[in-house]
Structure formats: C-alpha cells, structure tokens
Give the backbone structure.
Amino acid sequence: MTQLAHEITETYRLPEALLEQLLTPALVIFPANVRHNVRAMIDACGSPDRWRPHLKTTKSPVIWQELLDAGIRQFKCATTREAALMLRLLADNGIAGADLLIAYPLIGPAVRRASQLAAQFETSRLSVLCEDAALAAALPGELGVFVDVNPHMNRTGVPLEEVERIIEIAAAAGGRFRGVHFYDGHIRDREPATRRARAEALYGQLLELRIAIISAGAAVPEVITSGTMTFEAALEFDPLSGLEGTAHRISPGTVVFSDWMTEQARLATGLRPAALLLSRVISRPTGAMATCDAGSKSIAAEAGDPCARVLDYPHLTALKPSEEHLPMAVELDRGASPSLGEALLLVPRHICPTVNLAERAVLVEDGEVAGVIEIAGRGHELIVEDAE
C-alpha cells in the first residue's frame, strides 16, 4: 500500500483511497490553507480593499471564488484568458463594480480582445497597462489606462525618472487614466530589513511622481505596488497610507498558495503552503540517491535549484530536474532514504508556473477529497474573433 512519508501534519493528510488511484505527478490544493492565507492577507492589509491580488498564480475560478467570498473586488491578471474567466465569474456571481487590470503590455490583437471583454462585461471595469502616449490615446474608450512605471526592474514600463513622459501618457489617456502601476519585483533580498530599505527608497520616489502628475493637472486615482517580497514593506510605509484622492493597493498573487520562496522570505504574515505537488519515488539509482517522477514538465524549474523542498523530509535535497525526473540527494546520516514507490509532497520553489503546468488539480480538505478542478486559466488564448 502506498504510504505518505512519515507523520506529516494533519493539514496535508491524504486519503489512502486517493493515493491508491492518483497518478503522479499531481497538483494537490488544500482549500483550508487557501482560506487561511486569504484571511492573513486581508488582516495584514486592514481590509479587502487594499489588496489587488494577481490571478496569474491560482489560475482557477474555483480558487478565485474564495477571494470573492472574502470580499475582494479588485484584481489584476496577466492574460486575456485569465481576464475572460474572472469577468465571467464576477458576472455569474452577480457582482457589479468589480475592477480588473490586465497587468501586461497588450499589443496588436490582444488590445482588440481586451476591448471585446470590456464591452461584453460592462458591469465590471477593465483596464490595461500602457507605456506609450500614442498608444494610450488610441486605446478603445471602454478600457481604463494605468501607466506602467519601471522602478529599475527593467522588464517593462517607463523609467521612473522620465517624469515628463509619464505625465504625457496620463494626459493622453485623459479621463480614462486610472493611475500608476509600480511593480518592484526585482527586490528579492533574503533579509526583510534589506528589502524594506530598498522598497521604501523607491516608494519615496513614487510619491514624488504622484505629486508631479497631480501638479500637471491629472488626478491619480490609484497606485499599485508590491509583489510577494515587498508587500509588507509597502503596507508599513506610512506615507502610502491615507493618500488624498489616491488609493494605494498591493498586488501579490503567490501569497494565496504560497511556495518555498515565500517561506524563505521570512514574511511576518504567517502564510502556509496551499498547493503542493504529489510525486512518487520511481528509482533509487544509488544508496544516497532517490529519483521521483516530478520533472520540469510538472514543477517549475526556472527559479533555480533546488526547485522544491520535500514536506517532512528535510534530509532530501532536490537536484536539477530533467523533463520527467527529479533526482534527490539523501543525507543518510540524517534520515533514511525513501522507499521505492513512496509518495512525497513537494513544496515548489515557485508555485505560479507550477500551477500553469497542471491541467487539473485535486482538492483535499480534512483528509478527504473535496473535488477535482480544471486549471482553466492556464496557457493563453490563441485567436481573437472579430465581432459581427
């Protein structure tokens, strides 16, 4: 009979009937921990209104329903597929006035698709990012506009120092200008104090930019900052609180599921891993090695090695994965090697792309299977059909 490794906490107990049937690798989601994490985030924020969670992590309307049930009404996403699914979910819930930002530079047909979604789901507000004044002026009128500001991450956006260019974009957007998107995801220092100091220096510049935009004649309804590594610094930076005429929101999404990187960040918010990968030992090529069936096609490998930690097996260290294999080094002086066929729960280093690799996931609550869900938001839409 397949057994889980040793005695793990009750939260992660899997029913024997499931272990007898479930093919691995398999994504397993623990809704109780999802709800715990959502509550912890709202407590940290002080209210649901200060959190604009990024949907790219969870990619499932079933999980997004937990956010809606908690009173959250503003979100951001990365793809038009995620946008379409969330807008449909909001409509099915009869929720009007919700707010969704596609936090990705849309070009070409993607702009047309966003416009279609805004027209189809008129009871919600849909916005896009922009870093070009001409594009801001040409965007369809039903779309709101956030200027994407580059806080030295150098991935997208207008450099923070190019204030006149940012003001020009805000002016080109006119009444559709929604505010500033300021993602400081490059601040990833392990020490919280170092992250905080770097983030606060940038937030000071952001506030100066806000004043400059307002002085040029445009209102700034919202500033969006902070992913998982810096949201605590943003929430505790007093000048961002209580801005007159401007809402400040943080936008981490990983926090809903958490992952190993989140654990290593030593956040004070008290998050728990809520989505893990179930894998089985398929080979023991040496006495000090064990290989499981979770390769790079099932667990994200782009964030570096080790790509995961093994729940309840601290003496196993994941090595570089191949497509279908994850070899592990076993510290035999600290514990026994797992047996052939043994089931292991892996906490991914980076949960967001790990979720995207799964077609479906099993929900487990109170040691019982609560359902199987589609990861409906994975991947991208392909073709935009013109409306007749």
User: Anything to note?
Assistant: The two ends are 58 Å apart (CA to CA).
